[in-house]
């Protein structure tokens, strides 16, 4: 019985000893955690995300680049020529005569108060001033006010081989729309730039329009034109020659050399010849 009691006591002692060891280990772990928490976390490997570095480390103030503001666009200048240009551009974009009040209100240029500007505007070759109605109107090279006027002008100029679009641009503010309408109706032919803008306008004479077979159209469209640099070689392979341009050589007439008359000075050694001009030929006197 006493042995059993001794065994129970020993078991309780061993159990108590194991419990104390476990508590000490826990305390040691908490101390290590506390020591880690007390150390600074700048650039720590435990959390190497961008947010961790941004929150842990102090942010550097970014230098703001200086932005210089642009001057406000007032629309017109204070110089007389710039104001004159503004008024003329307004009249050019207007297809009808404009009164002085309309010019002042639309361009913000008071042409009545500026006498020099008024004189330049009245005496301008491209501006027509109506004294009775007190109005100004732009005078274009061609009087075009509708697409019918444009068509009539192209009919009159059909023998000249077409008209340049830029020569008509200041004639009518809606010239581009008129060209597209007439081209869609088939009344004019348009040669365009690479960007699609009109270049040359022709009147389409319907009587010369010959119907072409669709097969021929396909053959024509299927022909590939060589590049400009490869075109001479392609013509040579086809047995054709490029057009040769002969430059006429201008033969300049030889300039005649004029003999310069020089006054020669002679050193006179014989005093008895002092009054005789030795530069002239001797001609004996005939009696």
User: Given the structure, what is the number of helices?
Assistant: 10
What's the total count of β strands? Answer: 6
Q: In the CATH hierarchy, what is the architecture of one domain at level 2? A: Orthogonal Bundle
Query: What's the assembly state of these chains?
Result: single chain
Biggest sheet descriptor: 3 strands, antiparallel
Strand content: 5-15%
Strand/helix succession: HHHEHHEEHEHHEEHH
CATH topology of one domain: Arc Repressor Mutant, subunit A
User: How are the strands of the largest sheet arranged?
Assistant: 1-3-2
Low-pLDDT residue spans: 21-54, 67-74
Subunit structure: Tetramer of two alpha and two beta chains.
GO molecular function, one term: TFIIH-class transcription factor complex binding
Main location: nucleus
Family: Belongs to the TFIIE beta subunit family.
How would you portray this structure in words?
The protein is mainly α and 287 residues long. Among the domains are: 55 residues, no CATH class; 59 residues, Arc Repressor Mutant, subunit A; 75 residues, Arc Repressor Mutant, subunit A. 40% of the residues lie in helices and 8% in strands. The strands form 2 sheets. The protein has a 3-stranded antiparallel sheet with strand order 1-3-2. Strands 4-6-5 form a 3-stranded antiparallel sheet. Helix 3 crosses helix 5. It is extended and about 195 Å long.
Topology:
Layout: H1 2-38, H2 50-56, H3 80-93, E1 98-99, H4 100-107, H5 115-122, E2 127-130, E3 135-138, H6 147-156, E4 163-164, H7 165-168, H8 175-184, E5 188-192, E6 198-203, H9 214-222, H10 231-237
Antiparallel strand pairs: 1-3, 2-3, 4-6, 5-6
Helix pairs in contact: 3-5
Protein name: Transcription initiation factor IIE subunit beta
Keywords: DNA-binding, Nucleus, Transcription, Transcription regulation
GO molecular function: DNA binding; TFIIH-class transcription factor complex binding
């Amino acid at each position: 019985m006493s042995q059993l009691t001794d065994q129970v006591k020993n078991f309780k002692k061993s159990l108590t000893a194991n419990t104390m060891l476990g508590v000490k280990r826990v305390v040691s772990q908490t101390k290590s955690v506390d020591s880690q928490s007390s150390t600074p976390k700048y650039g720590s490997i435990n959390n190497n995300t961008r947010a961790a570095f941004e929150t842990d480390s102090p942010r550097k103030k970014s230098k703001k680049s200086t932005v210089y503001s642009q001057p406000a666009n007032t629309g017109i200048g204070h110089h007389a020529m710039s104001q004159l240009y503004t008024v003329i551009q307004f009249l050019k974009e207007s297809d009808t005569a404009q009164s002085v009040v309309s010019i002042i209100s639309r361009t913000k240029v008071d042409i009545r108060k500026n006498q020099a500007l008024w004189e330049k505007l009245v005496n301008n070759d491209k501006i027509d001033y109506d004294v009775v109605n007190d109005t100004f109107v732009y005078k274009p090279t061609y009087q075009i006010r509708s697409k019918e006027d444009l068509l009539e002008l192209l009919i009159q100029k059909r023998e000249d081989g077409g008209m340049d679009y830029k020569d008509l641009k200041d004639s009518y503010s809606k010239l581009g729309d008129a060209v597209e309408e007439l081209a869609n109706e088939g009344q004019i032919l348009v040669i365009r730039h690479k960007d699609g803008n009109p270049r040359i306008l022709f009147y389409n004479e319907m009587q010369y329009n010959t119907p072409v077979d669709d097969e021929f159209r396909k053959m024509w469209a299927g022909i590939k034109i060589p590049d400009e640099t490869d075109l001479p070689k392609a013509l040579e392979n086809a047995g054709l020659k490029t057009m040769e341009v002969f430059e006429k050589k201008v033969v300049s007439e030889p300039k005649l050399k004029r003999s310069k008359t020089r006054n020669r000075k002679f050193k006179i050694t014989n005093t008895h010849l002092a009054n005789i001009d030795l530069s002239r030929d001797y001609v004996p006197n005939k009696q």
